[in-house]
Design a protein that fits this description.
Blueprint: H1 11-31, H2 35-44, H3 63-74, H4 83-104, E1 108-109, E2 112-113, H5 115-119, H6 121-140, H7 147-171, H8 184-209, H9 214-241, H10 244-247, H11 253-257, H12 262-268, H13 273-283, H14 290-302, H15 305-325, H16 331-340
Antiparallel strand pairs: 1-2
Helix pairs in contact: 1-3, 1-4, 2-6, 3-4, 3-8, 3-16, 4-6, 4-7, 4-8, 7-8, 8-9, 9-15, 12-14, 12-15, 13-14
Amino acid sequence: MTPPLAERTEAPAVLARCRDLVRPALGRAVATLHPWHAEITAYSLGWEGPDGRAVPGAQGKGVRQALAVLGAEAVGAQAGSAVPGAVAVELIHTFSLLHDDIMDGDETRRQRATAWKAYGTGPAVLAGDALFALAVQTLAAAPGGSCAPAVRLLSGALGDLVRGQADDLLFESRPWTGPDAVRPQEYRLMAEHKTGALLGCAAGLGAVLGGAGRTETDALTAAGRHLGVAFQAVDDVLGIWGDPAVTGKPVHSDLRRGKKTYPVLAALTAGGPAAQRLGALLRSGEPLDDRAARQAAGLTEEAGGRAAAVAEADRNLERARACLESVTLAPDPLADLLALLPYFTARTL
């Protein structure tokens, strides 16, 4: 039997094709920045290390770039029409990481120092601000008549992104248990805003710049937002149980920081002895040492939190698939999009 198109498509090849298409334009855009900002951006993108050479493994996979390119192709447009949108979302993504690392106090990303540790907090903030402005400028200068709706889509995603980041920070000050505790549904909405908004924007921008109508654009945008929730759920699992050699972060890093993540929140609401012991451990408010962090991870898994997060990721992958299949899209780009879906949850769980 002939396998479905999505099974005959390799996700790494799809990502590489889209990165190769977008990279020249992304490089030209970064080159227009103030030299200091351009250097910090090149460092953040993994193009250059402290010695001026590229850093193997430090470059991102380019999933947002791919969603933009495939979004355009899926509505029958040339891939090149999506390049300004792909550049814009990559610049916004890099901006968000620069600021996010500062807010979270993360000192490593992709197994090396974050930009604020390498250059200082002020320079990293300025570089992020410069990328924000450049992203809007890049999209506003895109050829064709789709600039206005594209900028509106981007600005809406930016509003959701910062709303989600605000909620994520505020969650840290709320209790683990009791009437004021963060509920899984609240966390789900935060993840859709913080992570899903830009992924949805990427796919939607490809459709808008490719001349698609509202129906196709909305379906692609919704699919991307579901992918964001799936991606965040997996990221939460890796933040507790991930291999530091893969994640670039210390084991149990999220638990040590007291960060509210989906596995822990799901475990706490599951009921049962393990959930009760986990709540008692976390309610102390004291930072977790090695032993306590291991205990919290074990109780979270015993109470079903890890399985719940994986199930949440799988549900959102299926919702993304349903969105993509709800409209008529070009078959080959649709196959490429479907091939990317498992990539969002198969990150060394």
